[in-house]
Structure formats: C-alpha cells, structure tokens
Design a protein that fits this description.
Length: 175
C-alpha cells in the first residue's frame, strides 16, 4: 500500500490548512489555492465554505502538536466517529484509482474533512508521529507534514530551515 506521496494528498493539505488558520492567509482565495495545490476539486469551493474549512483547520491543529501517538490516535478516532464516511473507489485525474472516504455526492467541505482525516490516520499507522509536528525553528508555531520517502523534514518551510542552520553555524563559530 502506498501511503506517502500523491495518493495521500490530504496530508499536505491538512498541514497547509492548519498553517493558514495559525495566523497565515486563510482568505477564500488562499484556501482555494490549498485545495488546488493538493489535488482536490477546488472549482467546487465557494467563498461560503471558507468558515467550515477554517474550523476544520483548528480541529486538526492538536493532531500536529500531539506529543504521544496515543493522544493522536484517540483524537483521530473521535473525529472518525463524527465525520460522515462511506468509503468507495474513484478513478479520476490527477490521482488515478484511489479511495474516496466521504459518501458519494457529499459537499466539498465534507469530502475534504473525510480525506484529510483518513490520510492522517493512514500516516499514523505507517509512521506514528514521525512525519508530522511543529516547526523546529525558534519562535515558529507552524506545522509540517513530511510525505517524502526520506522523511527527514523538521521545518515548516525553507526560510525556517535556513535561518536555523545559519544560527547554528554562527553559534558553532563563536564556540
Ligand atoms: Zn478523488
Ligand atoms: Zn517554521
């Protein structure tokens, strides 16, 4: 089973949404971009859906800050009881054959909730909390999700990785 990579587009989307509501840009256009960049049906997004997505970002935030897999599992299980699910297979671009988790003909926000939730659950089954977390840079509260094969990511973005590396280099030189 291929968990990381393009078949789990909900993982990167979840992290991007959490960062959007954590003081990033959570305007309808920014949310639309998150959907588009992660292979969701962004054309179905209506500005009126923005509040539902923002709320879902707040709901998923504790998953990324969880310090024990047990807490994360409890949280995901609780959400899986609340989010309507009706798994089925679908074959469409850009993903090819893949799982859909929400009931057929659900609204986009419902599909987004179901997919992000299930993709995070699959990630935890495969990697525990080893692929998600809070950015390791000082004073950064943004989150990351690593779906690469290597799985070494610890920062939310390149700028955070770079300034942390520069600071470490300077500290070494002083020492
Ligand atoms: Zn699909
Ligand atoms: Zn950061």
């Amino acid at each position: 089973m291929r968990i990381t990579g393009y078949r789990s587009h909900g993982v990167a989307a979840a992290a991007a949404l959490v960062n959007a509501v954590l003081g990033g840009d959570d305007s309808p256009d920014a949310l639309r971009r998150i959907l588009r960049d992660n292979g969701f049906f962004w054309r179905e997004f209506r500005d009126a859906d923005a509040d539902e997505l923002r709320h879902w970002g707040g709901t998923l935030h504790p998953f990324f800050t969880a310090t024990s897999a047990e807490d994360a599992v409890t949280m995901l299980n609780g959400l899986m009881l609340r989010v309507p699910m009706h798994p089925h297979l679908s074959d469409h671009e850009p993903h090819g054959l893949h799982m859909h988790y929400a009931p057929p003909s659900s609204r986009l926000p419902d599909r987004f909730r179901a997919t992000t939730l299930m993709n995070l659950a699959e990630l935890v089954v495969e990697h525990g909390l080893g692929r998600t977390g809070v950015c390791a840079a000082d004073d950064c509260h943004r989150v990351y999700a690593d779906t690469s094969r290597a799985g070494r990511r610890r920062f939310c973005s390149e700028p955070c990785a770079n300034r942390t590396n520069v600071a470490a280099f300077r500290a070494r030189r002083r020492g």
